[in-house]
From TrEMBL:
<dbReference type="InterPro" id="IPR005119">
    <property type="entry name" value="LysR_subst-bd"/>
</dbReference>
<feature type="domain" description="HTH lysR-type">
    <location>
        <begin position="4"/>
        <end position="61"/>
    </location>
</feature>
<dbReference type="GO" id="GO:0032993">
    <property type="term" value="C:protein-DNA complex"/>
</dbReference>
<protein>
    <recommendedName>
        <fullName>HTH lysR-type domain-containing protein</fullName>
    </recommendedName>
</protein>
<dbReference type="InterPro" id="IPR036390">
    <property type="entry name" value="WH_DNA-bd_sf"/>
</dbReference>
<keyword id="KW-0804">Transcription</keyword>
<dbReference type="InterPro" id="IPR036388">
    <property type="entry name" value="WH-like_DNA-bd_sf"/>
</dbReference>
<dbReference type="GO" id="GO:0003700">
    <property type="term" value="F:DNA-binding transcription factor activity"/>
</dbReference>
<dbReference type="GO" id="GO:0003677">
    <property type="term" value="F:DNA binding"/>
</dbReference>
<dbReference type="Pfam" id="PF03466">
    <property type="entry name" value="LysR_substrate"/>
</dbReference>
<dbReference type="Pfam" id="PF00126">
    <property type="entry name" value="HTH_1"/>
</dbReference>
<comment type="similarity">
    <text>Belongs to the LysR transcriptional regulatory family.</text>
</comment>
<dbReference type="InterPro" id="IPR000847">
    <property type="entry name" value="LysR_HTH_N"/>
</dbReference>
<keyword id="KW-0805">Transcription regulation</keyword>
<keyword id="KW-0238">DNA-binding</keyword>
C-alpha cells in the first residue's frame, strides 16, 4: 500500500492552488528547496510522477490530480473531526476567526458579534479585514475559519474545498450630487445616467460590478475618476465630479450627496459566507453563521 503523507499532500494541494513552488513556499512558510524535496519524497512514496517541468514552472500530472481528488475527501473528513472534537470539548465555547471585506465589517460582522456577546459569551470572534478575493486565500490557508465575500469574487460553487452560504443581496443605490437635475427625478433608472461621468475603482470587483450593472442597463459607463474607498468616492460625488453606484451597506450619509434607489433596474451584489468543507458542522462556527444570517436579515 502507498504511503499517504498528509503533510506532503497538503504541500501538493497548495502547489495546485498557488501555481508555483516559490508561491507555495511563501504560503507555507517554507523554502522553495524544502517544498521541492517534500514533493519529490511524496512522489517516491506513492510510486508515481506528480510533477513535470514546463519552462520555469512545473505542472501537475494526471496522477497528481487523481491523488488530490482522493485527498480532498480526507481533508474534508479531518475538518469534520476537528469540528466535532471542538464541539465535544468546548460545547458552544471556542474561537472563530472571521475574514471579511471592508463594508461587511460594520454592516454584518459588528452586529453579529454584538449579539453573540449577549447570547453566547463563551464564543470569541476574531475579525480580520481583507479584500473580497483575499479572504478565500486566508480560508484555504487555515488563517480564518469563516470568510465573508461577494459571490462575484467567490470560487466556483463546486469547489471541493468550501461550503458557501448565501447571506443576502445588497442593493446598489446611485449617488448623485445634491444639486444634480436628476437628484429628485421620479422613477430614476440607471439608463438615465448613461451620459454622466462615473466614479469607480480602476480595477477589481467594484469596477466589474459597476461596469456589469451599467452594461446590463444598455450602456458603457464613462469613467471620469478612479477611487477605491467609499469616502473618496462620495466626496467626489458631493463635489459634482460625477455619479457612482454605492452598495447600500457601504453608504455613509453626506449632506451634499443624494442617494437614490433604482427601482426599475435595481442592481445588487450578492454577499456570501464560506467555510472549509466540513467545518460548518462545528458548533462555534455554526453559531457565528447563524448570527451573521440574523444580521443580514435585519438589513433594510
Amino acid at each position: 500500500m502507498a504511503d499517504w503523507d498528509l503533510r506532503k499532500l497538503h504541500i501538493l494541494r497548495t502547489l495546485r492552488e498557488r501555481g508555483t513552488v516559490t508561491a507555495t513556499a511563501e504560503a507555507l512558510h517554507m523554502t522553495p528547496s524544502a517544498v521541492s524535496q517534500q514533493l519529490t519524497n511524496l512522489s517516491k512514496q506513492l510510486g508515481v510522477e506528480l510533477l513535470r517541468a514546463q519552462g520555469r514552472r512545473v505542472r501537475l500530472t494526471d496522477a497528481a490530480r487523481l491523488v488530490l481528488r482522493h485527498a480532498e475527501a480526507v481533508f474534508e473528513q479531518l475538518e469534520r473531526a476537528d469540528a466535532e472534537l471542538a464541539a465535544h470539548l468546548r460545547g458552544e465555547a471556542g474561537e472563530v476567526r472571521v475574514g471579511a471585506f471592508s463594508t461587511a465589517v460594520p454592516a454584518l460582522v459588528v452586529p453579529a458579534v454584538t449579539a453573540l456577546r449577549a447570547s453566547r459569551p463563551g464564543i470569541a470572534v476574531r475579525v480580520r479585514e481583507a479584500e473580497a478575493q483575499e479572504v478565500y486565500e486566508l480560508l484555504a490557508a487555515g488563517e480564518v475559519d469563516l470568510a465573508l465575500s461577494l459571490a462575484a469574487q467567490a470560487p466556483s460553487a463546486v469547489d471541493p474545498r468550501f461550503t458557501r452560504v448565501p447571506l443576502f443581496a445588497d442593493p446598489l443605490d446611485v449617488a448623485l450630487p445634491g444639486d444634480h437635475p436628476l437628484a429628485r427625478a421620479e422613477r430614476l433608472r440607471l439608463a438615465d445616467l448613461a451620459a454622466e461621468p462615473w466614479i469607480f475603482g480602476a480595477g477589481g470587483p467594484w469596477s466589474d460590478i459597476t461596469r456589469g450593472a451599467c452594461e446590463a442597463a444598455g450602456f458603457r459607463p464613462h469613467q471620469a475618476h478612479a477611487a477605491a474607498g467609499w469616502p473618496a468616492i462620495l466626496a467626489m460625488v458631493e463635489a459634482g465630479m460625477g455619479v457612482a453606484l454605492v452598495p447600500r451597506m457601504a453608504a455613509v450619509p453626506r449632506g451634499g450627496v443624494a442617494m437614490r434607489e433604482l427601482r426599475a433596474d435595481r442592481p445588487v451584489r450578492h454577499v456570501v459566507a464560506a467555510v472549509r468543507k466540513g467545518a460548518e458542522e462545528g458548533a462555534a462556527v455554526a453559531t457565528v453563521l447563524t448570527a451573521l444570517r440574523t444580521a443580514a436579515d435585519a438589513r433594510p
